[in-house]
Design a protein that fits this description.
With about 210 residues, this protein is α/β, with parallel strands linked by helices. It contains 6 helices and 7 strands. The protein has a 7-stranded mixed beta sheet with strand order 3-2-1-4-5-7-6, covered by helices on one side. Helix 2 runs antiparallel to helix 5. The chain is globular.
């Protein structure tokens, strides 16, 4: 399993170089800077240490969505520059930078790990990405009233407290592995997906 996961990540990185680095020099610079920032302490360790200090039992909850997969999700969900995306549990924010630069929509990354948010804010200011913001807070305390798209990747008990009902009609919530079983939402679309840990389904849930 370990070597299969490593091979997946290597292949994914080569695809990112091929499909994205040559299309946006700014994204190449951002991604390179991000790799350097986490070279000695990877984001999995950062997240684990944060949860350990909080006394959490589940400390292995960090994961990242492959950018090539996210590009396919963006196309499937019809995300455009007119949308406002909120990434709940954004981690180091790689997905947020990609969306801001390749889609051009207003993007907000939310995470409660301070080092993720601080580094994300620094890079956004350094490369002058005006329509990208990061907030250090719990995902259940994030206002979704002005979001047209919400992405929710990992599961944590805090998710049960998220008020999805404040979202406007027609807004979408993208979930991994399980649909959003909330009143007022229906599964609009779904697609298969591959992560380093295995294959699953992506659900695009729409507010009706």
């Amino acid at each position: 399993m370990f070597w299969k996961s490593r091979l997946f990540l290597i292949q994914e990185h080569l695809k990112v170089i091929r499909f994205f680095y040559f299309r946006s020099f700014v994204f190449f610079l951002v991604d390179f800077a991000m790799c350097c920032a986490y070279f000695f302490v990877n984001p999995y360790c950062v997240c684990r240490r944060f949860f350990q200090k909080k006394g959490e039992k589940k400390v292995h909850v960090y994961g990242e969505t492959p950018l090539t997969l996210w590009a396919a999700i963006v196309k499937k969900a019809d995300i455009t520059r007119n949308d406002r995306l909120i990434d709940l549990g954004c981690g180091r924010g790689r997905l947020c930078f990609w969306t801001s630069l390749f889609v051009g929509c207003s993007t907000v990354g939310v995470d409660w790990v301070p080092s993720f948010v601080n580094r994300g804010c620094f890079l956004a200011r350094l490369f002058r990405i005006a329509h990208l913001r990061f907030h250090c807070t719990g995902i259940s305390r994030t206002s979704l009233s002005d979001a047209t798209v919400v992405y929710l990747y990992t599961y944590h008990s805090d998710e049960e407290k998220i008020d999805f009902q404040q979202m406007r009609t027609g807004s979408r919530v993208i979930t991994v592995s399980e649909p959003l079983l909330k009143k007022g939402f229906v599964i609009d679309k779904s697609m298969s997906a591959s992560f380093p840990w295995g294959d699953t389904e992506i659900f695009i849930n729409k507010k009706i």
